[in-house]
Design goal:
The protein is an alpha+beta fold and 134 residues long. Helix content is 33%, strand content 22%. Helix 1 packs antiparallel against helix 2. It is globular.
Length: 134
């Protein structure tokens, strides 16, 4: 059973180019837990570090062309310096080579930031842009 697979026990730290590539890949696969790559390109800090925290394995039984994948919580560092929370699905071939956070302390700091960050939707509403911008 797919859900019995252990989750990756690592937090990934990625640059903006990797984030945009992963969002585009999820978009190309037609996966629902992702942001529009154009929005990410326009709003993510170009030199920022973004983090992925694994939350669950997911399988699309009705789409056998899409391999099982991990749903990640995604912490995006924006150009404004703010951080926002989203979700992103990533297939194993794409997440295995990503750099991981190597210290427990940094991983715990990322968890605290994830717990405190507003969702992209909440941030857009607060900024007066509305969720239609996604």
């Amino acid at each position: 059973m797919e859900s019995a697979l252990p989750l990756p026990r690592e937090v990934k730290a990625i640059d903006s180019a990797s984030l945009i590539r992963l969002e585009a890949r999820a978009c190309d696969l037609g996966l629902s837990q992702r942001l529009d790559p154009t929005w990410v390109r326009a709003n993510a800090a170009s030199d920022g570090t973004h983090y992925l925290w694994p939350i669950m394995w997911h399988n699309l039984s009705h789409r056998r062309d899409v391999p099982r994948h991990v749903r990640w919580e995604l912490l995006i560092t924006l150009r404004t310096g703010n951080r926002v929370l989203s979700l992103l699905v990533v297939i194993p071939d794409d997440f295995t080579p990503l750099p991981k956070v190597t210290s427990r302390e940094q991983g715990m700091q990322v968890r605290l930031l994830l717990d405190r960050a507003p969702s992209v939707r909440e941030w857009l509403l607060r900024e007066g842009e509305g969720p239609g911008r996604l």
